[in-house]
Amino acid sequence: MNVLLLYNPKAGTRVFPDELDRVIEAFQNKGKQVIPHRLSGTDQMEAFLKNQDMESVEKILVAGGDGTIHQVVNTMMHLDIHKPIGIFPTGTANDFSQYFGIPKDIDGMIKVALRDTVAHVDVGKVNDRYFINVASFGNLVDISQRVNEQAKNVLGVLAYYIKGIEEFPRLKSIRATFELDDGHMEEDIFFALVMNGKSAGAFRKLAPFSDISDGLLDVLIFKKCPVIEIVLLLMQVVNGEHPKSDHIIYAKASRIKVSCQADLTSDLDGEAGPPLPLEIQVEQKRLQIIK
């Protein structure tokens, strides 16, 4: 059986290409033929996957960060590919892989990727796009898109904190309408997150009650509040204490509709997403993640 290896050479500290031979050797020693593909664009990746005999493919390995996994999963969903995914978390934050406790050292990554055990996990859908970890909109949510690659490589997740603090003086609220399953609400908010996983950016306890296989998404709405109270709120977020805050609405839902009068776009796993309005839903246990 063949194993496809899709790797982003620019992810994180850009060291994964130096480890390619070790990965290939480990799989060859198990009688698996690795077919590597250097990621440089979604069109090229889609063409590569279309040309593969999927009947002979055992699993698909992905080396990169959340954005890389996001692109691969969207392509797999578009092509209706159902294969286990092995993750080599070589990006900056690696939130999705954090959920499964995948090691950060290359030997540990290889050990996990060689396994046959999988977790059947949910994937979120926003309009005609998919997300693995988080969909968001409002102020601050596109920070990961605006932090330059050099800063991320040098500072890691600290770069997200610094960029966020820079944005505080310009923080403005927006009026948004939410439909959560059968519920309805309208709020003045700073931003909102719809979580499939537990963490985003550098916040490891952002959705402490999230279960990635329960068929539900965790919705966090950050309501408008005095800017001076935001620092305390962020400290609560770091410690996972924010669900009890008066400035947060924390709910679970399988279907969410979001609209607002402002001209806003969304962010999906750190990548630019579709503009509002958004229709969000869950495709339960659609992905197989090697663990």
From TrEMBL:
InterPro entries: ATP-NAD_kinase_N (IPR017438), Diacylglycerol/lipid_kinase (IPR005218), Diacylglycerol_kinase_cat_dom (IPR001206), Lipid_Phosphate_FormReg (IPR050187), NAD/diacylglycerol_kinase_sf (IPR016064), YegS/DAGK_C (IPR045540). Residues 1-130 form the DAGKc domain. It comes from Fusibacter tunisiensis. Pfam families: DAGK_cat, YegS_C. This is YegS/Rv2252/BmrU family lipid kinase. Keywords: ATP-binding, Kinase, Lipid biosynthesis, Lipid metabolism, Magnesium, Metal-binding, Nucleotide-binding, Phospholipid biosynthesis, Phospholipid metabolism, Transferase. NCBIfam families: YegS/Rv2252/BmrU family lipid kinase. GO terms for molecular function: kinase activity. Its cofactor is Mg(2+). It comes from the Bacteria. Belongs to the diacylglycerol/lipid kinase family. The keyword Glycoprotein does not apply.
